[in-house]
Amino acid sequence: MTKPPAGMRADARRNHERLISEARTAFAEFGADASLEDVARRAGVGIGTLYRHFPNRQALLSSVFSDAVSDLLDLSRELLDDPQPCTALVTWLRAIITHASEYRGLARALMAASHDDASELARCSGPMREAGSALLARAQRAGAVRSDVSIGDLLQLTNAIALAAEETPDDPELADRLLTLTLRGLKA
Question: Which domain of life, per UniProt (predicted)?
Fold first, then answer.
């Protein structure tokens, strides 16, 4: 779980933890555009308290999603030892799509953050790019993926697939079909 900043008073720490917990619930239920006023109310604090902890929506999103990002980073490190570099890359990309689909609107927010290095979500984006770059480089060295493929393009495609799947909830296989189609275009 995301830890509050060091040196925070006990009551502020409790507020911080409740805000993240309630934001996670609200984002899962209503999507990444859930009402911040509702998040604050659910946490039993005022909107000013929410903004003291999280200056904007992206800061709150970043804190909520940091646990999942940590899991994806752990998975990427495990996959670096996979004897099939292309399979490892695909496994990781599928995990990203699954993560992005847990919260309506997350894929859109991640796509927007990829163009804004100053955004709070960029804190998640940088480590994800590094992790993906390592997996991609292995697959490229193995000759399984074209050398002109970049991790930025792959992450944008992955978020676009998650967004397309989000917009088509009556087709649960869409994300996998789109990822398979995309991967065919990546082959060396």
Answer: Bacteria
Helices (H) and strands (E) in the chain, counts: 9, 0
Q: What is the dihedral of CA 106, 111, 114, 120, to 10 degrees?
A: -30
Task: Please determine, for residue 166, whether its predicted confidence score (pLDDT) is greater than 90.
Answer: no
User: Do 107 and 166 meet the contact criterion of CB atoms below 8 Å apart?
Assistant: yes
List all residues 6 or more positions away from 119 whose beta carbon is below 8 Å from its beta carbon: 58, 112, 113
| Predicted model pTM | 0.78
**Residue whose pair of structure tokens reads 């604050």 in the numeric block:** 40
Determine the Cα–Cα distance for residues 148 and 137; give it in Å rounded to an integer.
Answer: 11
CA 5 to chain centre: 21
Contact between residue 18 and residue 41 where contact means Cβ atoms under 8 Å apart: no
- Res 4: pLDDT: 66
Instruction: Give tens-digit pLDDT for 55-90.
Output: 998 889 888 888 778 899 999 999 999 999 999 999
Closest CA to 13 of 21, 25, 5, 22: 5
